[in-house]
Amino acid sequence: MNNINRVIFASGSGTSRSPMATAIFHSFPHSRPIICESRGLIVQFPEPLNQKAEAVLISNGIELKDYSSKQLQESDFSENTLVITMEETQRQKILSEYTNATEENTRLLNELVGDELEVMDPYGGSVQTYGLCYEVLKVSIEKLIKLLET
Question: Which residues form the Phosphotyrosine protein phosphatase I domain (predicted)?
Answer without folding.
Answer: 5-147
